[in-house]
Design goal:
mainly alpha; DNA polymerase, domain 1; disordered C terminus
């Protein structure tokens, strides 16, 4: 994956998809859903600008998921939370983050 300095939404999603296929062995349909849901988050967070993974905070992730509850069905919101946890684990595995944002729900926040 490219260095953190020049991540684009599409570049990071392509690397995430490869990670899901290579290390998790997820089926193509599951990978498409995860990538689609993470794309919504990244575009909401960064727009068309570069993806600054260091700027992703618990409050932003929780706020994003909470904002979906009024518009999306509960199962889709649950899927979005699962996809985001997987994406945050991917960032840590790639060395782009060292914290454990994917464990935010263990500190009382439901992600």
């Amino acid at each position: 994956m490219a260095s953190q300095d020049c991540l684009t939404v599409e570049g990071t999603l392509a690397a995430f998809d490869q990670h899901l296929r290579r290390t998790r062995g997820l089926a193509a349909g599951t990978r498409r859903n995860y990538v689609r849901l993470v794309r919504v988050f990244l575009l909401a967070t960064f727009g068309d600008g570069p993806v600054e993974v260091g700027d992703i905070a618990v409050r932003g992730v929780v706020g994003f998921v909470a904002g979906l509850t009024g518009r999306w069905r509960p199962r889709t919101v649950e899927g979005a939370a699962t996809a985001l946890r997987s994406y945050l684990r991917f960032l840590r595995a790639e060395g782009l983050r060292s914290d454990r944002l994917d464990d935010a729900n263990r500190s009382g926040l439901r992600v």
